[in-house]
Amino acid sequence: MEENTETNRQFECALDLMCRLPPQNVEENIVKLLEIVPDLTDDLLASVDQPLKIRTDEKSGLDYLISDYNRDGDSYSYYEGGLSSVYFWEGDDSLACAVLIKKVNGNNARSKGAWDSIHVLDIEERGRQAYYKLTTTIMLYTVSNQGEVGSMNLSGSLTRQDERDGPIDDISSHITNIGKFIEDMEFKLRGSIQDVYFCKTKDIVNDLRSTQTLSKLKKHRDIQGELFSQLKGRQ
């Protein structure tokens, strides 16, 4: 009993640590972590989402995304849709779906970044309605080096769950329902990321650092003081 409690505690601590580390280094970090706690290998690999990788089909020349959801042994199937891939499979009494989206910005030598979206749905048909349970993980990073401004590495990840019902007239209704559900979830998470990462980081940077020189700041304060004195003299 005590051994199970200790294992659970290690597992929770490992997950918490992985959530705090940059998502672009997940593979490297999880390998190091598993060297410390090898008994957690299966649980961690099943629980920690990793950034999506791009491969090219040898026959068609098209790019596709690889993940646990389209892996069969050491090979991967793919959906011919560029950098977004969709996979369906059947469960015991339900249908499951994974929608993978990857956006990479690496054309600028002074900045690079990536956005990985992993959407996993459980689908249960209930007569003329379908129940959808969506688990979404967003991983992103942006790295820039702007010369005098300096370098920046901003990264993070969010995981959220939601569920809803949708009408179904035929099998194609699932496409409409799933597409709308994922679109709403991504819009919601983009807003959360904007507030949690970018706005908060901007506030911190503005409080700690100024791009203006000390002479410009002094001149600005002198002008403010002069205006304040003139306004005070008119009272």
Automatic annotation (TrEMBL):
Gene3D superfamilies: F-actin capping protein, beta subunit (3.90.1150.210)
Subcellular location as annotated: Cytoplasm, Cytoskeleton
Pfam families in the cross-refs: F_actin_cap_B (PF01115)
SUPFAM superfamilies hit by this protein: Subunits of heterodimeric actin filament capping protein Capz
Stretch forming the signal peptide: none
Listed GO MF terms: actin filament binding
Domain of life: Eukaryota
Any single GO CC term annotated in Swiss-Prot or TrEMBL for this entry: F-actin capping protein complex
Subunit text: Heterodimer of an alpha and a beta subunit.
Described purpose of this protein according to its UniProt entry: F-actin-capping proteins bind in a Ca(2+)-independent manner to the fast growing ends of actin filaments (barbed end) thereby blocking the exchange of subunits at these ends. Unlike other capping proteins (such as gelsolin and severin), these proteins do not sever actin filaments.
Family: Belongs to the F-actin-capping protein beta subunit family.
Protein name as catalogued: F-actin-capping protein subunit beta
